[in-house]
Amino acid sequence: MNFSEKLKSGKFLITSEVGPPKGINIDKSLDEAELLKEKVDGFNVTDLQSSVMRLGSLAVCHLLAKRGLEPIFQIICRDRNRLALQSDLLSAYVLGIRNVLILTGDHPVLGDHPEAKPVFDLDSVSLLKVTSGLIEGKDMKGNDLDGKPDFCLGAVVNPGADPLEPQLVKMEKKIEVGARFFQTQAVYDLKKFEEFMKKAEQFGVPILGGIVILKSSGMARYMNEKVAGVSVPEKYIKMMAEAKKGERAKVGIQIGAELIRDMKDLCQGVHIMPLGWERYVPELLKASGLD
Amino acid sequence: MAEMSLIDYTKFRLKPNGEVREIFKGVNRIHILSCGKCYQKFEEENEEEYTQLLKILGKEYKKIAGYTKIDFLCNNFLSKKKILSSDLSNCDSVGVISCGLGVQFVAKLLERKPVYTLADSVPQSGNSTSEVGYHGISLEKEKCAGCNQCYLNLTGGICPITDCPKSLSNGPCGGAKNGKCEVNPELDCAWVKIYERFKKQGKKLTLESVQIRDYSKPSLELKSDLSLQNQTLRGEGFYGGLYPLEKKEETKDKKIENFPEPKTAVIFLSQHTGERAKPLVKSGDKVKVGQKIGEADGFISSPIHSSISGKVISIETRVHPVSGRKDLAIVIENDGENKFDPSIQPYNDFENLSKEDLLKIIREKGIVGLGGAMFPTHVKLSPPKRIDTLIVNGCECEPYLNSDNRMMIEYPKEIFVGIRIVQKILGVKEVLVGVEDNKPEAIKSLSNFLDKSSLVEIVSLKTKYPQGAEKTLIKRILGREVPERGLPLDVGVVVLNAGTIFAIYQAVVKGVPLLQRVITVSGENLTRSGNYWIKIGTPFKDIIECCLNKGGGERFLEEYELKMGGPMMGISQESLDSSVIKGTTGLIILRKSLVKVSEERDCIKCGRCVEVCPVQLYPLYYGFYGKKGDLEKAISYNVESCIECGCCESICSSKISLLSFIKKEKEYACSSNKA
Amino acid sequence: MLAVQIKPEEEILPKISGKKLFIFVCLGCQEVYFPREDVERFINNLREEIVGKALLDYLCNREFVGEYVKGYSKQIERANVILVFSCGVGVQVVSSLLEDRVVYTGCDTLYLNGFQGLTSQEFNCNQCGECYLNYTGGICPITNCPKSLLDGACGGAKNGKCEVDPEADCAWILIYKKLEKIGKLDILKKILSPRDHSKIITESLSREEIER
Ligand code: SF4
Ligand code: SF4
Ligand code: SF4
Ligand code: SF4
Ligand code: SF4
User: Fold this and answer.
1) Are residues B465 and B584 in the same domain?
2) Fewest 10 Å CB contacts: which of A1, A253, B142, B467?
3) Is the CB of C89 inside a 6 Å radius of any atom of ligand 1?
4) How far is the CA of B190 from the centre of ligand 2 (A)?
5) Is the pLDDT of residue B569 over 50?
6) Is C195 in contact with A115 (Cβ distance < 8 A)?
């Protein structure tokens, strides 16, 4: 079963992430991913995440596909105009990529090349629409394509956003123009997530809750302060703060596993964002009983 | 006044020190041009950037060969004159402190000299997909990037293009934290604002359809068309000026009718520029129509005649319609007999009268300029310099007014006779009749009587205010520039109003002094608007009574604004006891607006007043220094040259009552000149 | 300066159909840029009930609009939709003053060259925040070259005309000629790109507000 079929099957899905390196040494990442081959249903490959220049998502997706893994190609609107975006989507298809996650993207001033000119010619909604068009065999201007690509399209939503309403409106919009699954921002506050799920249920589209393994109490506090829609409950911060240096990963995993176990009944899957801790993903899955 | 903040939209700042020093390494003698800045609250005249430049330069400042500050450097027309008149001979390059517009303009103007910019522009848009942002003609925080596909209807009136750094038009990116933008936490997230705005309206945020911005909008063609259209309109004929709503339809087709004679006439002794006339009658005297009742006092003065027959009931002070102050008037009670003074005799042989005789008649019959200025015509017709051209002013550029228009339509023959008389007096062959192209009928009617052999030419002029002002008209028709503080005769021209020409005809051919004139009564809600022959001295109250259904009751001046003249140059009336004088071109009656905005506000250096001043002044200083009470300083900006056309005040984006400051300053200048 | 165009009917009519309207019309930029007659015609052709109409200049001035909102409060109260004819700035100011009311615009706004100066003119400036004119003989490469090239012509010019807009002169040919004229061709050796686009964000945010 490929990712798209699994989505339809109603199985509880697990996706993880591969962050391409800044450079060309990619083997380690690929090897780490391969370890998860049987445990994970798909691998998101981030596209110049946080506006930091790195190896491209398209190439890495292709390499994953070559190794028989299921890549989810993340594509953002910051760096390409509508011509390049459409073209890269076609390229992705011929390189064996079948899943695409469409995002707007961070602004360059937040990354390591703040001087860059942001493009934002399209945004996530319009790009989803355009991609759906490609699947139908038409480019954005209605010109016929010679052969149609077929993608399983995904998008993101931030369940902790405040106010939440605009997110829901936009989510609905995304579904309307072709999104077939959603991955969310990191979830720590299950109550809030549950509320979100109650509202999102009506859309009938699989939602994969986001999981980020806490690395320290500092990280938790930082996220609470800076990252949109993230609120790590005090009890977790305390757990992390009390953990000894060598044990932090273990505690982080423990928290992650707890969240995943609780999420099982709430949503249709989880999306794990290891942020450099790829090596701990197998352990996390084991601890949460998803292994 | 509401709590407000004015955002400083200054468009440039000095380049970083290192860069400035680097530029100076490459030059030996440099002239600095510095723009006075725009779109910031006008707080003081400062030369901040220049001072800072000197500081950065240290000893290198010696390389500066000269320095000129120019207000609104990008005003190509005015700045060109200023730059070309400053001495640039001893410098090898020019440094400009302004935004990119000023620099490019200077670089093009001084093509052969290296021009350096010492400043960088300051971005306005705050958003990366549209580099340029516009803040309207105000200093509010709302901006517009001119996307030409306005999204405001989908976003509760909050602009997603300028307010969201990613210009997202399909909803938030999801990065906002505590309602703050992820790109710059000082900003509120545009989409959270939009969401909240909708909530306040009891509506839900719905994204109606997927928005995809069309970057090919607006087309280059449209932009260049509009831009060109705008530039041509601006520069049409003469520098400055405006295109106010014309509002002439109401009375333009109404034939001139006789207005009922007043029961009591209030005839002011000052109906002309110069000394007030001396009364020749006293209370109780009987007077006849056309009888001289006031004698000219000196050369620049003019006699006054009774417009009705009856009894002088008093000589007392009344509110003068021009000065607004009490002034001497002869009040005459009409006996209804309409007896004419024996002095009224047609000059059958006027063709054979000498130039001197003609001038004497014109003086004796009390002819003054009827366009509003009331300058004694005999003085104008005795110029100390050679005149080669007579211009007959049929522009009537003031909105609402049609008195000259109707005269030209109804009395073309008489006007041509009048022209011949003036030709003889001045000894000029060439006569140009300037009529604005919004009066096609007048042009047609005059053309019908045009004598092919004469050198009279009718010039149809594109409508623009204040075309009828002498200096602008001369510039427009002949291309001649009357010098600053100069008169038309300095360039060999005399300008006479079409109505004045008719009055000359009346005086010389019929022997009738200036007893009545054509006045347009127009405005809002009038039952009898029209063009009327109205006797001099007819109280305004009579006219309002007749033309406004409910008449001029007690509360008239509370509800209505009464202007003598047109809406631009006309004078607001405070008393209905004032009466028609020789310079009354019209009476405009307008309902007072529901809303009154105060007229004292800070200047924001939008430069609009400078752009419209036909005399090429910098009116912002009149308001600025007028408010400060520093009249000397205002005078140093040449306030005496102002023709009080009102363009600056009418366009002022801060609604500063510039004219009232100007009048005060001119008066002050006048009195200090005398002293 | 901005130019204002009336929106296509099919875009605006459905939004206001059957609603009671209060209309604001700005006369501020009327001088040349405002389609006064089109707006009058549009309003006269409306079938909707118009409960009030205010004409004023400088709709972008919050203080003025504030006075009008007070003066016309009764009519505004009765309206379901406040329809504004002005540039985008005016609409935003009105809608910020009538936050709880539905405010629609009847116009699209575009800008003309040199619009951020005081009048529309042949020069334009995109406010890039790092002026390049010292390297280009005072001819702006950002606004005159459709590709905003900083290091010389793209090579597409034909007979001195730009390949993107054949009506326009190739900016880089003009720059070359100008530098030749002032004997500064060596400046062309300097590499100017890339631009720092972050200035648009960072600098335009650092404006101070002066309290009135
Ligand atoms: S609101 Fe717009 S159209 Fe009206 S005066 Fe201001 S800038 Fe001009
Ligand atoms: S959406 Fe409206 S206000 Fe915003 S840039 Fe476009 S025209 Fe201007
Ligand atoms: S009133 Fe005076 S200063 Fe103002 S525009 Fe007219 S001539 Fe210029
Ligand atoms: S028009 Fe008014 S606000 Fe603008 S510069 Fe002149 S005086 Fe100042
Ligand atoms: S727009 Fe004109 S007045 Fe304003 S800074 Fe630039 S050159 Fe000076």
Assistant:
1) no
2) A1
3) yes
4) 13
5) yes
6) yes
How large is the C-alpha radius of gyration of chain C?
23
What does the alpha-carbon distance between residue C113 and residue B104 come to, in Å, rounded to a whole number?
A: 13
B316 and B427 share one domain: no
Q: What is the CATH number of the domain that holds A122?
A: 3.20.20.220
Q: How far is C44 from chain B (nearest CA, A)?
A: 18
What residue numbers bound the domain in which A90 lies? 3-157
Q: Are residues B365 and B490 in the same domain?
A: yes
Question: Considering its fold, how many domains does chain B have in total?
Answer: 4
Q: Does residue B225 sit within a domain?
A: no
- The answer as to whether A71 is a domain residue is yes
So what's the ipTM on this one? 0.82
Q: Does B184 touch chain A (CB under 8 A)?
A: yes
Q: Mutating which of C127, C144, C180 best tests the B interface, going by the most B Cβ atoms within 10 A?
A: C127
Chain B residue numbers with beta carbons less than 8 Å from the beta carbon of A169 are 171, 204-207
Closest CA to C47 of C22, C1, C13: C13
DSSP SS3 for B93 = strand
| Model confidence, pTM | 0.83
pLDDT in tens, C148-160: 888 877 777 778 8
Residue A138 burial class via C-beta count within 10 angstroms: exposed 0-12, middle 13-18, buried 19 and up: middle
B340 pocket-lining for ligand 2 (C-beta < 6 Å): no
Distances in Å between the Cα of C169 and the Cα atoms of B307, B626, C123, C159, C184 are: 68, 47, 13, 9, 21
Q: A162 to chain B: which residues are within 8 Å by CB?
A: 178-179
Given a cut of 60, whether residue C205 has pLDDT beyond it is: no
Among protein residues, the one whose CA lies closest to atom 3 of ligand 5: B72
Distance B153 CA to ligand 2 centre (A): 10
Quote the CA–CA distance of C49 and B405 in Å, as a whole number.
Answer: 39
Residues of A in contact with C195 (CB under 8 A): 115, 117
Q: Identify which of B42, B616, B653, B661 to mutate to test ligand 4's pocket (most ligand atoms within 8 A of the CB).
A: B653
Domain membership flag for residue A229: no
CATH number for region C3-110: 3.40.50.2300
Range of the domain at B419: 350-510
Among left, alpha and beta (phi > 0; psi -120 to 50; other), residue B238 is beta
Count chain A–chain B contacts defined by CB atoms under 8 A.
97
Between B611 and B502, residue with greater pLDDT? B502
pLDDT reading at B200 higher than 90 = no
Q: Is the CB of B466 under 6 A from ligand 3?
A: no
Please tell me whether residues B504 and B520 are part of one structural domain: no
Residue B531 pLDDT more than 90? yes
Is residue B398 located within the same domain as residue B488? yes
Q: Among B165, B195, B211, whose Cβ lies nearest the Cβ of A165?
A: B195
Listed residue (B232, B134, B39, B131) closest to C109, CA to CA? B134
Same domain, B492 and B523: no
The answer on B406 and B444 residing in a single domain is yes
Q: Among C111, C118, C128, which residue has the most ligand 5 atoms within 8 Å of its CB, making it the best to mutate?
A: C118
At B101, the pLDDT band (50, 70, 90 cuts) reads: confident
- Amino acid identity of residue B195, one-letter, is Y
Pick the last residue of a domain from B510, B532, B556.
Answer: B510
Whether A126 maps to a domain, the answer reads yes
How far apart, in Å, are the Cα atoms of B437 and each of A170, B405, B458, B463, B467? Answer: 57, 11, 11, 6, 12
Distance CA A177, CA A254 (A): 38
Interface test with C, best of A51, A78, A106, A109 (most C CBs within 10 A): A109
pLDDT digits (tens, 9 = 90+) for C127-136: 777 888 888 8
The answer as to whether B236 is a domain residue is no
Domain count, chain A: 1
Interface test with A, best of C149, C196, C198 (most A CBs within 10 A): C198
- CATH code at position B79: 3.40.50.2300
Domain borders along chain C are 3-110, 133-211
- C196 CA: distance to closest CA in chain A (Å): 4
Residue A40's contacts (CB-CB under 8 Å, 6 or more residues apart) are A14, A15, A16, A272, A281, A285
Q: What is the percent of chain C where pLDDT is above 70?
A: 88
Tell me: do B546 and B657 sit in the same domain.
no
